[in-house]
Write a structure and sequence with these properties.
Helix content of chain C: over 70%
Distance between the termini of chain C: 52 Å
Number of strands of chain A: 0
Helix content of chain A: over 70%
CATH class of chain C: Mainly Alpha
Number of domains of chain A: 1
Shape of chain C: elongated
CATH architecture of chain A: Up-down Bundle
Strand content of chain C: under 5%
CATH architecture of chain C: Orthogonal Bundle
Shape of chain A: globular
Structural class of chain A: mainly alpha
Radius of gyration of chain C: 17 Å
Distance between the termini of chain A: 63 Å
Largest sheet of chain A: none
Chains: A mainly alpha (about 180), B mainly alpha (about 725), C mainly alpha (about 100), D mainly alpha (about 400), E mainly alpha (about 500)
Number of helices of chain A: 6
CATH superfamily of chain A: NADH-ubiquinone/plastoquinone oxidoreductase chain 6, subunit NuoJ
Largest interface: A-C, 91 and 75 residues
CATH topology of chain A: Four Helix Bundle (Hemerythrin (Met), subunit A)
Number of strands of chain C: 0
Number of helices of chain C: 3
Largest sheet of chain C: none
Oligomer: heteropentamer
Number of domains of chain C: 1
Chain lengths: ~180, ~725, ~100, ~400, ~500
């Protein structure tokens, strides 16, 4: 019962958040909805016993990505004048009818693809009974340090690269006039 | 009393820790460092005293403590090799410990007064602590290897202390000379250790004695020499170096460059005695190697020769230095003539009165800032306490009855006389010994009279001398030491003949407790067992009864009587000689009835030889090193770099150069006209086509992607 | 109620929302939000498959790497956005088309 | 539902009796219900207790600062002024709730709630005692780190939504500071996780002992350094002085909560004080032996053996001893935090970032590697164990 | 990190450092230095970890660390690494000395820093390779590759006459290597090109005692002829008497850190070669030639010491003292008793620390005085009164000097005593003569010390400053090592004794 409650709440949060991201007109709010959605995903992870994933989701998204997003929004935002010196929109609109139309087209097409892929999968694997949840941390750690060691190391290099790269890219420099 | 390593080791470790701590703090906390040094040595003294009292209360000749632990272990497979270190305490060690720590404590105390205005006050104590711990380690060692280790460490300390005033050119020379001279002896000592080690399998004294008793050393020849002789001689060379015996005596007079308290501690009382101590420990080997005559003559020549040189010295410390060499010679005579006990006793008594003499000299020097005796005179009014201490010590060293020097030296000379009556070869030893005794009495009192009697010869110095007051660290140590110049402390009686009972039953304790390790008795060591670190002592501690002390030393009645008579003659003779020497000195330097100048003119050549110390320094430094070794080295070095390297090795370069020119010609003319230029770049055609479908709109790309993917997926059939 | 199909449905919705946001928005940051949604949807799928199909945690590993990559992507992407904004004072997606033709 | 409190209580007979009784009355298996009730009750207790502690924190802050500055501090309301926080609370609730005109209302209202949620969520895994812990997640410490980062979002949104320069600067400072200092803090935590071999709070604490030489802080030199790195980072994460730049009153009026009034402001303050408590609790759990009591008194085993007490009773006594141990250490650290605040001057922003990125992070990395190497080279023995081992082996040569 | 990969980690860690140095920009000198330092520190820590994981009871190669990966399988060449008690002290010494050398070079090297540190790290990797390699071919490769960085390090950063010294060093060593290569090839064919034809362990054990080979029309023992070849190859590195003349040149010209490496590590590679290759593969010939080796060692001891005494350049003096001290190692090896060989290996380690100290100290002094004359060519004093002017320097110098002299309580003594004990049982006469080497050793060092440190202060010396904190920092580990292993040698002896015992047992069977 408890698990089901949690699942329902998480699912609602996830889907609700995602849809709110779509319909939000304010980028800042969209970002907060995204946070909600990500929390929901963390809850969903918990429901299927992926405790470590859930915690990672929390740490990485809540603590890192979303704050980064917020920072980016704030650093690129400027409410006083909406047009920059090139005469372009500084904060572009969250979309208009045309883009929404194209987007819904894209969504429908992709939905078709996915549903086409998923239906056989669901047919082959009828819902089985839920196996009991087990702690995953040790097993995950063992897997990461043995079978997936290469991927693990590469991802560490990737992260390092991203760290250095991000720092280098966004470092304030003299403006280049082109 | 149960001994463990922890009740014995602090004797060594306290000063050593003091050294370690002081080495770091001395620069900033000089006073504290000095305090730590003094406290550490005093702690060692207390431990030693406890051990001494324990041994005295057991009062047995075969009581000893032996603690062993493994230093390192190279055993692997079938190869067994283990190096053990250990602590070995018997009666001799106990006495030695008490002497070393006692003298060292007093000298530490004295140094706090003597050195306190020196800029390197603290550093001096650092060296003293290290030195003391090394000496104590040597005394406590149970094997030759650790003796050697501490022996060398003392050599290093001595080097540092002689070179203490390193700004002075002479100090540097003297320190190096001291180290190198003793090093000559040490190299032989190491050789002796190796000889013993390779045969016995360990260097522990008790193992060695046991091997000797078991006859293991018999019949082994090394380079054509019997092992015992080879090893005994090698080890004795060590003694010659450390205890400044002819011909390795040259370093000790120069060692007076060091501060006076260190002279007192190192070059008079303890370190030089270590050589004699080692020889005493090794006595069975030396006896087995038939080295006694050789040793006795070395000692006799040293004793007499050094005494003659002392006659003409004008520096107060130089006189003392030569008297030290001379007295060490007596100890070596004692070893040579088999007077084991007396030799060791002389070591102890000499240490005490020589330490006192040096400290007194230090006191004089510190008061008048001058070392030359011709400029002194009449100081007895200014320095009454120093005078008193020095007087007692001079009595002791001259061999005046009731003083310690008499007790010990008389017995050595008596034994020498006994040997001379038995073996004609020893007659020279006896003559030189008695002659040296006469000279000793003479030059010591010459020194005393020149310093303290008569009128002041240099009024400037005299007037500026400080009035002496009793001070706990200036002259109290002297007085304490001078108290122990009385003979009764060592013999239990004033004359050494065993009549006065002072400590109840403990009369003649010294002669009872210290026994020569005869080959017949060293066999008792065969039953020893190694004990591990930290275990308690399980040795037999049953004391010998008093009856075991046999005044005839187990000799036949007739023989004992003979010895007794000869000893009496010797005693009378030495008393006479002592007073004769004192009288001569008195008449020359106080009454002035005899003119010393007349004598020096009469024997001018001799005087010159004496002033030049028998030309030993000239021979060693001037001839052997300057004329021999260094030019040879230069020649060798020139040969190495100038000839062998230049022509022998670099000669190949000529050959190579020729080959090189040939190959260069080949290279330039044939290979260099190659053809390695020609594959350019030509790949700029495709991008014209690709550029056209680049709109730069990301979302467009994305939609195209989705559509393409969709069209692909929808054609699939699952 | 907790079943594979429900999870797949949720992830489908997330994914579609992501696609929608990516296409509809003209703001680069908003597009990045969409990318996050898509990545989350795929990560959720992996976790769900692991749970309901074979339970050998390989999917968790994949999800973990997706999270790692998402973090790296966000960092670098936002860095680029900020830099872009410094240069052009705009974060309109269509302004970033210098590479055309 | 794996709750430690529930499993602790399910050991007792009364639990079984009540469950059976309820099952008979209601007609279905009521154990789950009872468990839920227990859990809910304890959650409420903890939330209430923590709110009180947070409130008392403000009182303690004022009283200790007064003490440090040789003043008296609040002394009117209640004995020694101890009820001052209640008075403050009442005042805050009664104040007018102002939302500025240009504010983004949605975010403005959300920010304090996010802060409080982030902090309260962490309370679930704080190990008060071996039995009295709401949930012993097997990713406990990781969960705690993740949840605590919500506070950063809250602070940022608070600053942003107010639409005021001071708030904006404060919020940005706060968020950047929190995410920066999360790195050294997490690295220090991971070093300890490495020592313990698990992420769950129970594993972390079980690796330690009651006596100080068994604590992880004294496990090896790296862990020792790690404690200070963690503690400094924790101070910065909670925006405490000397890192209180987000609310630097001399420059930014009041930082991110400049525009907040009434209970919303109160929520921010409450969140801050409770977070300090949580952070100190984590430091205690990770480095200072957690709830462990010396001589294994906590399990009550020894009481049963020596005093012949009933098992459950002994266990309860043990639980109280453990609670005492945990709270004593935590509150001592809490005192240190306050003490630091009133002792050290505030840093500049560049100094703050320099400290984090150029000093704490490298040190934390070195600590992490050092701990790893230590574990590898010494097979996980602590330095004291090594010394004792060495001393013991030397004796038996 | 699995135990089995630890050797590869140690071996390749400096290469990682080389890569890092190459990537870093040229003008970021502090970063380059710091990176090199961090790298060497990690390497040193890894060697200490290796020490901590070392099983002292296991004779021969440690099972846990052996690596054998096919490298050039056509010729049965393997990437085969291993460590035993003989190489472990050398490995630790290498790790330690390179770390200190980086620190020493921190301020002393001012010219093309990037290249210098890259080469230094490359050198470290190759030195590790020599000590780890169990494949003869791999050993040879590392042995040769090591020459390259060494050549440049001497030839570029050296003193006035550096090119000459570098070329000399290179050619000398290369000559020896060629002889060794001949030996390798001969062994390859002697084993019929089997799988183990490059496996040092499989080759060893005296398998070639019956073989003979035809050379210039005469039939000679295979074992003897190739033992001599290898002996010369290694002897040049040691260096043994007739092949020693490169050493004074190389030492005098090389920069401080390189002198330290040269004397501290590279010389040991020669004696290590004897222990690892020449003796185990040809034990019967080793036994046969042992008397000759002992005499050569004796000549080294005495000749080196006498030549040292004549030098007026401090560094040259110490260089000759290295010749003398390596003579002791040769004596210990020639003894072929458990004491002698243990003493030799210990002496290799101890000489590494003490002579490194001496070279560091001279380098530090050179930084201040810019010359090294005890007595200048014009006859005036080069130094004098340093003791008064530089107290801390002098104390550390004394420690190094007395350690090098073999004062008991410092590290040199134990090894020398063991060597003498070992050699005494076989060659008494040589022992007696070699003991005088000790005497002369004390003489030249003390004489040098007297001339440099005692006496009144030379006006030039008045301007020198005492040691900086950095200098004290990198001298401190060596001081500690010298004192610690002088009092308590067991940490080193315990690891080597099993392996040495095995080797001695092997030699004893012939």
């Amino acid at each position: 019962m408890f698990a089901n409650t949690l699942f329902l709440a998480s699912a609602c949060l996830t889907i609700g958040g995602a849809i709110a991201v779509v319909y939000s007109k304010n980028l800042m709010h969209a970002c907060i909805y995204l946070l909600a959605s990500l929390f929901g995903v963390a809850g969903l992870y918990t429901c299927i016993g992926a405790d470590f994933l859930a915690a990672t989701q929390l740490v990485v998204y809540a603590g890192g990505v979303v704050i980064l997003m917020l920072f980016a929004i704030m650093l690129t935002g400027g409410t006083s004048n909406k047009v920059n010196r090139f005469g372009l929109e500084k904060i572009p609109a969250m979309g208009n009818k045309k883009t929404f139309f194209i987007a819904s087209f894209a969504a429908v097409v992709s939905a078709m693809i996915i549903v086409k892929i998923l239906i056989p999968v669901l047919k082959q694997n009828p819902s089985s009974a839920l196996s009991p949840n087990e702690p995953t941390v040790e097993r995950l750690g063992t897997l990461l340090a043995t079978d997936h060691i290469l991927a693990f190391e590469i991802s560490s290099v990737l992260l390092l690269g991203a760290l250095v790269g991000a720092a280098v890219i966004s470092r304030p420099r003299k403006e280049i006039h082109d | 009393m149960d001994y463990t390593l922890t009740t014995v080791a602090p004797i060594v470790l306290l000063p050593f820790f003091a050294f370690v701590i002081n080495a770091f703090i001395v620069k900033r906390f000089t006073k504290l460092a000095v305090g730590i040094s003094c406290a550490a040595i005093f702690g060692s003294f207390l431990y030693s005293l406890k051990i001494f009292i324990d041994f005295l209360s057991v009062y047995s000749t075969n009581y000893y403590i032996h603690k062993v632990f493994t230093w390192f272990d190279l055993s692997a497979g079938e190869h067994l090799f283990k190096v053990n270190m250990g602590i070995y305490i018997d009666n001799m060690t106990a006495v030695m410990l008490l002497m070393v720590t006692g003298a060292a404590t007093l000298i530490h105390v004295f140094s706090t007064w003597y050195m306190h205005d020196d800029p390197r006050f603290g550093r001096f104590f650092v060296y003293l602590s290290l030195f003391t711990s090394a000496m104590l380690g040597l005394v406590l060692s149970d094997n030759l290897l650790s003796v050697f280790i501490f022996w060398e460490l003392m050599g290093f300390c001595s080097y540092s202390l002689i070179g203490f005033y390193y700004e002075k050119e002479g100090a540097g020379n003297a320190s190096m000379k001291a180290f190198m001279t003793t090093r000559v002896g040490d190299v032989f000592f190491l050789l002796g250790i190796l000889a013993i080690w390779s045969v016995v399998g360990s260097t522990t004294f008790v193992d060695m004695y046991a091997a000797l008793a078991a006859g293991k050393l018999n019949g082994i020849m090394i380079l054509g020499i019997p092992l015992a002789t080879f090893a005994g001689f090698s080890v004795f060379m060590g003694t010659m170096g450390k205890s400044a015996q002819v011909p390795l005596q040259v370093w000790l007079p120069d060692a007076m460059w060091g501060p006076t308290p260190c002279s007192a501690l190192i070059h008079a009382a303890t370190m030089v005695a270590a050589g004699v101590y080692l020889s005493l420990r090794m006595y069975p080997i030396m006896e087995a190697g038939h080295l006694t005559t050789f040793i006795a003559y070395i000692g006799a020549i040293t004793a007499f020769g050094a005494a003659t040189v002392a006659l003409v010295q004008t520096d107060i410390k130089a006189v003392l230095a030569y008297s030290t060499i001379s007295q060490l010679g007596y100890m070596v005579i004692g070893i040579g003539v088999g007077s084991y006990n007396a030799s060791f006793m002389h070591l102890i008594t000499h240490a005490v009165f020589k330490a006192c003499l040096f400290l007194s000299a230090g006191s004089v020097i510190h008061s008048i800032h001058c070392q030359e005796m011709p400029q002194m005179g009449g100081l007895r009014k200014k320095l009454p306490y120093t005078f008193f201490a020095m007087l007692l010590c001079c009595f002791a060293i001259a061999g005046v009855p009731f003083f310690s020097g008499f007790v010990s030296k008389d017995r050595i000379l008596g034994d020498a006389l006994v040997m001379a009556t038995e073996n004609k070869a020893f007659i020279g030893v006896a003559i030189l010994g008695f002659g040296g005794a006469l000279l000793t009495a003479f030059y010591m009192f010459r020194m005393l009279f020149l310093t303290f009697f008569g009128e002041p010869r240099d009024h400037h110095i005299y007037d500026h001398a400080h009035e002496e007051h009793i001070g706990w660290n200036s002259n109290v140590p002297l007085l304490i030491l001078s108290l122990f110049t009385l003979g009764l402390f060592y013999s239990g009686s004033f004359t050494g003949q065993g009549e006065v009972n002072l400590f109840g039953s403990k009369y003649e304790w010294f002669q009872t407790l210290i026994k020569k390790p005869e080959v017949s008795t060293v066999a008792q060591f065969t039953d020893y067992q190694r004990e591990d670190l930290g275990m308690t002592d399980t040795r037999d501690k049953v004391a010998l009864t008093k009856a075991a002390y046999d005044s005839t030393y187990g000799l036949s009645e007739e023989k004992a009587h003979h010895i007794h008579v000869v000893h009496r003659i010797g005693a009378v003779l030495s008393i006479f000689i002592a007073f004769l020497g004192i009288f001569l000195a008195y008449s020359m330097y106080v009454k002035k009835t005899l003119n010393p100048g007349w004598w020096t003119n009469k024997f001018a050549a001799w005087t010159r030889a004496l002033k030049n110390k028998y030309y030993f320094d000239d021979l060693y430094v001037g001839k052997i090193i300057q004329k021999g070794l260094l030019p040879f080295n230069d020649l060798l070095s020139r040969f190495d770099m100038g000839f062998y390297d230049k022509y022998g090795v670099d000669g190949w370069a000529t050959v190579n150069r020729w080959a090189y020119s040939v190959s260069r010609w080949f290279d330039n003319n044939i290979v260099d006209s190659g053809m390695v230029d020609g594959t350019g770049a030509s790949v700029r055609l495709m991008n014209v086509v690709l550029r056209t479908i680049q709109s730069g709109r990301v979302q467009l790309y994305f939609i195209v992607l989705i559509v393409v993917l969709a069209s692909y997926v929808l054609t699939l059939r699952f | 109620m907790i079943s594979l199909s429900s999870y797949l449905f949720i992830s489908l919705v997330l994914f579609l929302c992501g696609i929608f946001v990516m296409v509809a928005r003209k703001n680069i940051i908003a597009i990045l939000l969409g990318i996050e949604l898509i990545l989350n949807a795929s990560a959720l799928n992996f976790a769900a498959y692991t749970k309901f199909l074979n339970n050998n945690l390989e999917g968790h590993i994949m999800s973990l790497f997706i999270i790692v990559i998402a973090a790296a992507e966000a960092a670098v992407g936002l860095g680029i956005v900020i830099r872009f904004f410094q240069l052009r004072e705009s974060i309109h997606i269509d302004d970033a088309s210098t590479l055309q033709n | 539902m794996n709750s430690t409190v529930v499993s602790y209580f399910s050991q007792s007979n009364e639990f079984q009796n009540v469950t059976n009784w309820l099952t008979q009355i209601l007609g279905f298996n009521a154990s789950s219900l009872v468990a839920f009730i227990i859990f809910a009750v304890f959650s409420l207790i903890i939330v209430g207790a923590m709110a009180t502690i947070g409130g008392l924190g403000t009182y303690a802050e004022r009283k200790i600062s007064a003490d440090l500055q040789a003043r008296i501090g609040p002394n009117r309301v209640g004995p020694f002024g101890i009820l001052q926080f209640l008075a403050d609370g009442v005042k805050m609730i009664l104040k007018e709730d102002i939302v500025t005109t240009n504010a983004d209302r949605f975010t403005f209202n959300l920010a304090p709630v996010l802060c409080l949620v982030g902090v309260f969520a962490t309370l679930a895994v704080v190990p008060y005692s071996s039995g009295f812990m709401l949930a012993d997640l097997n990713v406990g410490i990781f969960y705690l780190v993740g949840m605590a980062s919500l506070v950063g979002v809250g602070v940022f949104l608070g600053g942003y939504a107010s639409n005021s320069k001071w708030s904006m600067l404060g919020g940005m400072r706060g968020a950047s500071q929190i995410i920066s200092y999360e790195i050294p803090a997490t690295l220090s935590i991971i070093a300890i996780v490495l020592l313990a071999g698990g992420l769950s709070m129970k594993t972390l604490i079980d690796g330690q002992g009651g006596a100080p030489q068994d604590w992880y802080i004294f496990h090896n030199p790296f862990a020792f350094m790690g404690f200070f790195v963690y503690f400094i980072s924790a101070l910065a994460e909670t925006n405490r002085a000397p890192f209180d730049l987000p609310e630097a009153e001399s420059e930014l009026v009041s930082g991110y909560h400049t525009e907040y009034t009434g209970m919303k402001f109160g929520l921010f303050a409450l969140a801050e004080y409770i977070e300090v408590f949580v952070v100190c609790g984590v430091a205690v759990a990770l480095f200072l032996g957690g709830y462990k009591v010396p001589f294994d008194l906590g399990s009550g085993q020894i009481l049963v053996e020596k005093l012949g007490l009933d098992g459950m009773l002994a266990q309860n006594i043990g639980q109280f001893l453990e609670l005492g141990s945990f709270f004593t250490k935590t509150l001592l650290l809490y005192y240190v935090v306050i003490w630091v605040r009133w002792t050290l001057p505030r840093l500049r922003v560049d100094q703050l970032m320099t400290l984090c990125w150029k000093y704490l992070t490298p040190i934390a990395l070195v600590n992490l590697i050092g701990c790893a190497v230590w574990m590898y080279a010494f097979n996980g023995k602590s330095i004291f164990a090594l010394i004792f081992h060495a001393a013991g082996s030397a004796g038996g040569h | 990190m699995a135990g089995s990969n630890l050797l590869s980690w140690i071996l390749w860690m400096p290469m990682l450092g080389v890569l890092g140095v190459l990537i870093l920009p040229k003008d970021k000198t502090t970063m380059i230095k710091g990176w090199a330092l961090i790298n060497t520190i990690i390497t040193f820590i890894l060697t200490v970890v290796l020490y901590s994981k070392f099983d002292t009871n296991q004779a021969g190669m440690q099972e846990a660390f052996n690596v054998a990966i096919p490298w050039i399988s056509q010729f049965n060449i393997f990437y085969r690494l291993g460590v035993d008690g003989i190489s472990l002290p050398m490995v630790i010494l290498t790790g330690l000395l390179f770390m200190l050398c980086i620190l020493s070079s921190w301020t002393q090297i001012k010219k093309s820093i990037k290249a210098y540190f890259a080469l230094l790290l490359l050198l470290q990797s190759t030195v590790f390779g020599v000590f780890f390699a169990l494949d003869f071919f791999l050993f040879y490769v590392y042995w040769e590759v090591m020459l390259i960085p060494m050549f440049f390090l001497i030839g570029v950063w050296g003193g006035e006459n550096r090119e000459y010294a570098a070329v000399k060093f290179f050619l000398y060593t290369f000559f020896g290597s060629i002889l060794m290569l001949v030996g390798i090839v001969a062994l390859y064919f002697a084993t019929n090109q089997s799988v183990d034809s490059f496996n040092i362990l499989a080759l060893s054990g005296g398998k070639f005692s019956q073989l003979s080979v035809s050379l210039f029309g005469t039939t000679v023992s295979f074992s003897k002829i190739f033992f001599v070849f290898m002996f010369i190859g290694f002897a040049i590195k040691v260096p043994v008497f007739p092949f020693h003349t490169w050493l004074p040149h190389a030492h005098v010209q090389a920069p401080t850190a390189i002198s330290v490496i040269l004397a501290g590590v590279l010389l040991k590679m020669g004696t290590y070669g004897f222990l690892r290759i020449a003796f185990p593969i040809f034990p019967e010939s080793a036994k046969y030639f042992s008397t000759a080796i002992a005499w050569l060692g004796l000549i080294n001891v005495i000749y080196g010491a006498l030549c040292a005494m004549a030098q007026t350049d401090v560094k040259k003096l110490i260089a000759y003292s290295s010749v003398s001290h390596m003579g002791f190692v040769m004596l210990g090896l020639a003894a072929m008793t458990v004491q002698g060989v243990n003493g030799a290996v210990l002496q290799m380690f101890n000489h590494g620390t003490s002579t490194a100290m001496m070279f560091f100290m001279i380098g530090i002094l050179y930084e201040r005085s810019h010359h090294r004359w005890i007595v200048k060519p014009d006859g005036s004093r080069g130094y004098g009164g340093l003791y008064t002017q530089l107290p801390v320097y002098s104390i550390i110098f004394i420690i190094g000097m007395f350690a090098s002299m073999g004062l008991p309580g410092l590290s040199g003594f134990i090894s020398e005593a063991l060597i003498f004990l070992g050699i005494y049982e076989r060659f008494t006469t040589i022992t007696v003569l070699a003991l005088f080497g000790l005497l002369i050793g004390a003489a030249y060092l003390l004489w040098m010390f007297k001339r440099m440190f005692f006496g009144d202060v030379n006006p030039e010396v008045k301007e020198y400053e005492d040691m900086t904190k950095l200098e004290v920092l990198y001298m401190a580990p060596l001081c500690v090592a010298v004192i610690l292993f002088g009092i308590w040698p067991s940490p080193i002896l315990n690891v080597m004794k099993a392996s040495v015992g095995q080797l001695v047992s092997l030699l004893a069977t012939f």
